[in-house]
Amino acid sequence: MKIIDTHCDALFKIQQSRRRNEPLNFTNSPLLNTNLAFLKKGQVQVQFFAIFIMPDVPFDEKWQHALEQIDIFYTDVLGNHPEMKHIKKWEEFEQLKDGEIGAVLTLEGADAFGNDLAKLRMLYQLGVLSIGLTWNNANLCADGVGEPRGGGLTELGKEVVLLNNQHGVFTDVSHLSIQAFWDVMETAEYPIASHSNVYELCQHPRNLNDAQIKAMFERDAMIHVVFCPYFINHRRTDASISDLIKHIDYLCEMGGVRHIGLGSDFDGIASYVTDLEDASKHQNLINALLKHFTEDEVKGFASRNFLNHRPSMTL
């Protein structure tokens, strides 16, 4: 069954390996959870690749770090692999041929462009289709879940969300503080949670509480479950596929059967769900889901729900 995965950190991992002079090969490096061989084996139809900058990178170096990861995307991921097709517009999902894998650029944290909206517009032009305003820390746009003050969007953050709306780009709520989440819900035309689970089942600040989940579904927005055990089982580094399915089942009980997708966070996590350790194992999850849900529902979770909820506009 074809998979759309809305979050991985392969670009960051490859960048860090280059900076250590130990470059990882996207083709088949076993140290990459989302290498090409694994994507093919796992029947991944589209993989989203995040641009992510560590918060300790000096402010005047963040844009350079972002450009390095974009260069890796264009050279290592796309340039050396003709079967990888860059998706820059939402309708291009339908243009994928058998044997091709779509690749989508996203941004995790506005730190990359700071307060320079010209850089943000450049990211749109380079094909970024989803933007999360923060990682866990605070920045000039908003507070993340790790910022104790729990502030919401700044005026700059609201302006970025409005620009996302104008460009038909998702605003990703997965790492936002609770107040910033609600501010986004007031402003964003295209909210998404690219990799978040259920707070009621696992009390981690990265997960969404019932009020947030309800608000997302009322807005016809997608929540993509994440494969990180920390966000599946409270204060545990282990998880089973059955544990992950509990989160999917909970979201279904809240009325979200048509609003659930997959956002693995592969290459950004250090522990794994058993039998779901890399992109090659996606079908293990699909087979387990088929024991609990109808084939139509599982096809929705795997890819179709996302395809039905993409922004419809094209500029």
Summarize the structure.
The chain is of the alpha/beta class and 315 residues long.
Please characterize this protein's 3D structure:
This protein has one domain: TIM Barrel. 35% of the residues lie in helices and 13% in strands. It has helices at residues 10-19, 36-41, 62-79, 117-125, 155-167, 178-187, 210-218, 241-253, 282-289, 295-308; strands at residues 3-5, 44-52, 84-86, 101-108, 128-132, 170-172, 191-193, 222-225, 260-262. Strands 1, 2, 3, 4, 5, 6, 7, 8 and 9 form a 9-stranded parallel β-sheet that branches. α1 crosses α3.
Distance between the termini: 31 Å
CATH superfamily: Metal-dependent hydrolases
Order of helices and strands: EHHEHEEHEHEHEHEHEHH
**CATH level-two architecture:** Alpha-Beta Barrel
List keywords for this structure.
single chain, 315 residues, alpha/beta, TIM Barrel, 9-stranded parallel β-sheet, 10 helices, 35% helix, globular
